[in-house]
Amino acid sequence: MKFLKYIVLLLILIPVIAIVAIHLFAQSNKSSLDSIEAYFKGESIAHYVGYADYNGRTLRYIETGQNDRNAPTIIFIHGAPGSWRDFKTYLSDPVLSHRCRLIAVDRLGYGGSDYGESEPSLIEQANAIIAILKTKDTREVFLVSHSYGGPISGIIASSLPEKIFGSLMIAPVNDPKSEPIKWYAHFTYSKLGKLLMPGMVDVAADEKMAHIQELEKIRSNWVQIQCPIIHYHGTKDVIAPSQENLAFSQAHIKEEVLTIEKEIDGNHLLIWNQEEKVKQLIYKMIDYRAMQQLQR
Predict the structure, then answer these.
(1) What kind of fold does domain 2-294 have according to CATH?
(2) pLDDT band, very low/low/confident/very high, at 62 (cuts 50, 70, 90)
C-alpha cells in the first residue's frame, strides 16, 4: 500500500516539476533588457537592442557586428517556440561579428515581440521581419533560419529577390504533408494546456495547429526564390522528418539554386549541437556571393 502511495506521488510530482521547468525556461527566453546586457557584457561584444513597428505590433531584435551597409547582413529566424537567444552564441562569435552585421529577431509572440500574443500566419511573420529590414541600410542580406523559421525565410526570399542573396535553412518544417502533430501539441492547444503553460508555449501551440494550412498557402512561393538556398538537415530528425522535408525542397525549389547538406545521424537541434558546421555553411553562403561579385 505504501509503495502505491509513492507511485501516485511520483505521478503527481513529475508533471508538476515539468511544468515548473517549462515556466522557468520560458521566463529566460523572454530576455529582460538587463539579462541581454549582462550576456553581451560577459562576452565583451557591443550590441544594440532595436524595435520595429509592424501594423501596430512591436518586434524586438538584437544586433551585433558591423554597422556598415557594405558588410553582409545576416538575419537569424528562430523556430517555435524560441527567441533571439537561440542564436546568441552566433551573435557573440568574434569572427562572424567581425565580418558581418548580425541581427537575431524575436518573432511575433516571443521574447520582446508582444510576448504571448499569437500570430499563426507565416506571411504575417515574414512581413514583420521585412519591416525590420526596411529600417536598415543594407546592401546584401542573408537569412539563417531554424525549424518553423524555414518557411518564413522562404517567404522573405521570394518577396525580396533584390535584397536577399542567400538563405540557410536548418531543419526546416516545409512539407505540409509530413508535419507531425504529437499528443503534447494537442494538450498544449487545449484549454487546460493553455491554463497551465506559459505564453511562449501557447503561441507555439497556436502556430503548430495552423501550420499545415499555412504551409499550403505558401506552396507557390518556393519556386519563385532566386537566391542560393542551402537546406541542412539531420537524417534522424523526428521533429521535422528529414526525408520528406528534403524531398519537398528538391521538388519545389529550383535545382540551380538548391544545395542539400545532410548531417548523418543528426537530430533537430543542429543550431546548438552542430554550431561549427552551421558557421561553416554561413561562410560558404557569404563567400559564394563574394566569388560571384569577383567574377563579374
Answers:
(1) Rossmann fold (3.40.50)
(2) very high
